[in-house]
């Protein structure tokens, strides 16, 4: 399949490697200064760019009938608008805050644990995410998805960075050189703690998941998630 890479940074380069190893062709590499390009050359686009460019990159694909996979985080205030434009153009779209198989299993585990803890008022939930120092957004998209998984399965009503109210999930975001992505959800009581952690050792898992999603979406129309692609949960 002919792939357009929208964003040719750390993830774009890793996706290129994985895509070539699976027999695909990269027909476009679009980065910050590339304003004029013909997205219609591609069978599918994979967007790992920056928060301020994702919406335009993605909706340009819908308008040109190119299915699009996006892993860019930090732009989700415009997600609903993107979905509406996708539907209006009969397009195909998958956004995931995290494309790795391990994190998608971890998302399910997090929801299951939240259900178990729902009525145990002696425990307080909190979250920590650690990423490399170049990351533009905080908290991470993955942390937001985890917080939503807790909120949807408990009586908590929101999340906040650092100091949260009693009815919110507090998230601490740490930035440490070269960390690909570590997420921990903790439940603490006076007598014990329950912690679940996902640790990415490198970026390969994210990239492989994105390429698998791109392979899966060809020929489909609609808005999907990694749950559809991986058939879990
Ligand atoms: N969903 C997932 O599984 C994952 C998501 N991410 C997210 O993906 C995004 C990219 O991550 P990295 O590759 O690590 O960042 P990066 O900073 O290495 O690469 C981003 C690239 O986008 C380029 N760019 C800037 N404006 C652009 C535009 N208008 N069109 C196309 N490209 C443009 C930049 O020049 C840069 O090369 C971030 O939002 C990050 O949070 C990262 C890893 C996994
Ligand atoms: O910026 C990153 O690097 C990552 N971003 C994603 C996020 O915000 O959750 C996914 C992964 O953790 C790496």
From TrEMBL:
<feature type="binding site">
    <location>
        <begin position="141"/>
        <end position="142"/>
    </location>
    <ligand>
        <name>(S)-2,3,4,5-tetrahydrodipicolinate</name>
    </ligand>
</feature>
<feature type="binding site">
    <location>
        <position position="34"/>
    </location>
    <ligand>
        <name>NAD(+)</name>
    </ligand>
</feature>
<feature type="domain" description="Dihydrodipicolinate reductase N-terminal">
    <location>
        <begin position="1"/>
        <end position="99"/>
    </location>
</feature>
<dbReference type="GO" id="GO:0016726">
    <property type="term" value="F:oxidoreductase activity, acting on CH or CH2 groups, NAD or NADP as acceptor"/>
</dbReference>
<dbReference type="GO" id="GO:0051287">
    <property type="term" value="F:NAD binding"/>
</dbReference>
<comment type="subunit">
    <text>Homotetramer.</text>
</comment>
<feature type="active site" description="Proton donor/acceptor">
    <location>
        <position position="131"/>
    </location>
</feature>
<keyword id="KW-0521">NADP</keyword>
<comment type="pathway">
    <text>Amino-acid biosynthesis; L-lysine biosynthesis via DAP pathway; (S)-tetrahydrodipicolinate from L-aspartate: step 4/4.</text>
</comment>
<dbReference type="Pfam" id="PF05173">
    <property type="entry name" value="DapB_C"/>
</dbReference>
<dbReference type="InterPro" id="IPR023940">
    <property type="entry name" value="DHDPR_bac"/>
</dbReference>
<dbReference type="GO" id="GO:0005829">
    <property type="term" value="C:cytosol"/>
</dbReference>
<feature type="binding site">
    <location>
        <begin position="71"/>
        <end position="73"/>
    </location>
    <ligand>
        <name>NAD(+)</name>
    </ligand>
</feature>
<dbReference type="InterPro" id="IPR036291">
    <property type="entry name" value="NAD(P)-bd_dom_sf"/>
</dbReference>
<keyword id="KW-0520">NAD</keyword>
<feature type="domain" description="Dihydrodipicolinate reductase C-terminal">
    <location>
        <begin position="102"/>
        <end position="230"/>
    </location>
</feature>
<dbReference type="GO" id="GO:0050661">
    <property type="term" value="F:NADP binding"/>
</dbReference>
<keyword id="KW-0457">Lysine biosynthesis</keyword>
<protein>
    <recommendedName>
        <fullName>4-hydroxy-tetrahydrodipicolinate reductase</fullName>
        <ecNumber>1.17.1.8</ecNumber>
    </recommendedName>
</protein>
<feature type="binding site">
    <location>
        <begin position="96"/>
        <end position="99"/>
    </location>
    <ligand>
        <name>NAD(+)</name>
    </ligand>
</feature>
<dbReference type="GO" id="GO:0009089">
    <property type="term" value="P:lysine biosynthetic process via diaminopimelate"/>
</dbReference>
<dbReference type="InterPro" id="IPR022663">
    <property type="entry name" value="DapB_C"/>
</dbReference>
<comment type="similarity">
    <text>Belongs to the DapB family.</text>
</comment>
<feature type="binding site">
    <location>
        <position position="132"/>
    </location>
    <ligand>
        <name>(S)-2,3,4,5-tetrahydrodipicolinate</name>
    </ligand>
</feature>
<comment type="function">
    <text>Catalyzes the conversion of 4-hydroxy-tetrahydrodipicolinate (HTPA) to tetrahydrodipicolinate.</text>
</comment>
<dbReference type="GO" id="GO:0008839">
    <property type="term" value="F:4-hydroxy-tetrahydrodipicolinate reductase"/>
</dbReference>
<keyword id="KW-0560">Oxidoreductase</keyword>
<keyword id="KW-0220">Diaminopimelate biosynthesis</keyword>
<dbReference type="InterPro" id="IPR000846">
    <property type="entry name" value="DapB_N"/>
</dbReference>
<keyword id="KW-0963">Cytoplasm</keyword>
<keyword id="KW-0028">Amino-acid biosynthesis</keyword>
<feature type="active site" description="Proton donor">
    <location>
        <position position="135"/>
    </location>
</feature>
<dbReference type="Pfam" id="PF01113">
    <property type="entry name" value="DapB_N"/>
</dbReference>
<dbReference type="GO" id="GO:0019877">
    <property type="term" value="P:diaminopimelate biosynthetic process"/>
</dbReference>
<feature type="binding site">
    <location>
        <position position="35"/>
    </location>
    <ligand>
        <name>NADP(+)</name>
    </ligand>
</feature>
């Amino acid at each position: 399949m002919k792939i357009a890479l929208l964003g040719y940074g750390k993830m774009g380069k890793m996706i290129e490697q994985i895509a070539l190893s699976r027999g695909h062709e990269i027909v476009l590499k679009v980065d910050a200064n590339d304003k004029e390009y013909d997205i219609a050359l591609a069978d599918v686009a994979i967007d790992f760019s920056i928060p301020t460019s994702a919406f335009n990159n993605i909706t340009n694909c819908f308008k040109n009938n190119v299915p699009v996979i996006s892993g860019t985080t930090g732009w989700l205030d415009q997600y609903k608008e993107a979905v509406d434009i996708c539907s209006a153009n009969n397009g195909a779209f998958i956004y995931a805050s995290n494309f790795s198989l391990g994190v998608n299993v971890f998302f399910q585990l997090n929801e299951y644990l939240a259900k178990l803890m729902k009525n145990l008022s002696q425990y307080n939930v909190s979250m920590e995410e650690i990423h490399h120092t170049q990351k533009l957004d905080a908290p991470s998209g993955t942390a937001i998805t985890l917080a939503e998984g807790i909120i949807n399965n408990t009586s908590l009503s929101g999340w906040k960075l650092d100091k949260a109210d009693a009815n919110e999930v507090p998230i601490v975001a740490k930035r440490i050189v070269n960390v690909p992505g570590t997420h921990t959800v903790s439940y603490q009581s006076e007598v014990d703690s329950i912690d679940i952690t996902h640790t990415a050792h490198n970026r390969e898992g994210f990239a492989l998941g994105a390429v698998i999603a791109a392979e899966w979406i060809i020929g489909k129309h609609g808005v999907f998630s990694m749950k559809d692609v991986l058939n879990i949960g």
